[in-house]
Amino acid sequence: MKKSLCILLLSLLGSLALPAAMASELAGITLEDKIRLDNQDLYLNGAGVRSKAIFQVFVAALYLSEKKTQAAEVLALSTAKRMQIIMLRDISAERFGQNFMEGLKHNVSKEQKSKIIDQMIRLGEMFSKVPEFRKGDKLTVDWLPDTGTVIMINGKKTMDSLPDPLFYNALLKLWLGENTAQDSLKRQLLGEQSDFKKSLK
Question: What are the residue boundaries of the Chalcone isomerase domain, all occurrences included (predicted)?
Fold first, then answer.
């Protein structure tokens, strides 16, 4: 009896010594609170749902090496970053790409666009090769300091990396820019408001 009690106590103490892995849930999607990217820990800065009319389109989550609450601070951060998008409904890649280009048009100056036009063309070519984004598909847009912008769909690299940080920040402005299509999503990504629930993994 005493031996069983000792084993139980040791088991409990062992579980207390290990920090519980946490996750966040939003619109039925589970988001890791911490990820590993480019040999670095990144933390969930904020997440929200992109909506259009009455439809929920995707969940967006921003991962950074340290907490940031201002868009300018996020853009200035030189360490690894990730914008993660998980689709909540089916949408054609052509339409999704058009939304990307429209967002760039409204959030990037003419001078900046002239410097990243080649990268924008390559981004358009990427969308032309993907027929459709389906519910549950995951798009990650990463910044790796020694590599550049890396875009993956469901864990598969879709195009060569693009080294210009100006291009990555232009992409981030789709969600964090002054003229972003959904200001509430911007606030959520910056951690100003949150609709997700915390849970143990």
Answer: 23-191
